[in-house]
Amino acid sequence: MKESQLVELIDGALEVADRASQKVLEIYNSADLKFESKKDGSPVTEADIASHQILNKGLCKLDNKIPVLSEEGNVNFMPDENLFWLIDPLDGTKEFINRNGEFTVNIALVEMGSPILGIVFSPAVDENFFGSINLGAFKVSGTERERILPRKQAEDKCSVALSKSHKSKDDEWFVNQCKKRFNVVHELPTGSSLKLCKVAEGKADIYSRLGPTYQWDIAAGQAIVEAAGGIVNDLHGNPLTYKFNSKIKNPHFFCAGDKNFPWLELFRELN
Q: Which of 63, 69, 79, 73 is nearest to 216 (CA)?
């Protein structure tokens, strides 16, 4: 995709993300948060559905030739897999229900399997992120927009982003691996795709996920991390890639700010 076309899509997609985020925030601030359970046991709320509808309609208006793959939607035609939107209308539904504020609206644009644009809006904390590999990564707070960069990895200390809603045995294993390598390890519990954004802006050094995730959980954050200069790789060192298929799950992966640090050594026991 030409850079000029991408810039036009970024501006439009940011507006769409803002509209969806405002609707999610409106529901979040209401007196009664109702939710149901999907077949897999995960919760779905009114905000998930409302955000999906706004995102799907808005992104299709930007370019009706680019299909949308959403956690909350189905596609009734065979699209061109070379270019598509991959969205999570409400990432961190548990955070939303628990009212801890760390939920996000995620939009990724995928071209030839790679996320070339990522947008992560966090309406409750008013921190929004977006990035594209050729244009860089940015954080927007209110009217302030700043370029973000990951930090160079220190030899003696490490900050690890972890799930806020639950610390799994896999998380504990990874923290212990870090403690074997670094003198000081800080744990940074964070919700939703904000874990990846913390790495992108240099507030965390690494985030590891050794459990199941779907494509829409990670793609937007990956685009932002890579635009900032970091990596989101599987345990063989390959960047995550995406297909237009709602059933595909991501492999185990890690997200790191300093791509020159030998992170794979931490996972040697698993390979």
A: 69
pLDDT digits (tens, 9 = 90+) for 50-91: 999 999 999 999 998 999 999 887 654 555 679 999 999 999
Is the model's pTM score more than 0.90?
yes
Q: Give the N- to C-terminal CA distance of the chain in Å, as an integer.
A: 36
| The CATH number of domain 157-270 is 3.40.190.80 | yes
- Residue span(s) of the chain under CATH 3.30.540.10 come to 3-147
DSSP assignments along 96-144, one per residue: HHHT-S--EEEEEEEETTEEEEEEEEETTTTEEEEEETTTEEEEEETTE
Q: DSSP class of residue 17?
A: H
Q: What is the largest CA-CA distance in the chain?
A: 53
DSSP single-letter state for residue 239 = B
What gap in Å lies between CA 218 and CA 94, rounded to an integer? Answer: 17
Q: Does domain 3-147 have CATH number 1.10.287.130?
A: no
- Tens of pLDDT, residues 106-129: 999 999 999 999 999 999 998 999
Domain with CATH 3.40.190.80 in the chain: 157-270
Write out the H or E segment, with its range, that includes residue 256. strand 253-256
Instruction: DSSP letter for 58, please.
Output: H
Highest mean pLDDT: which range of 33-47, 159-173, 195-209: 195-209
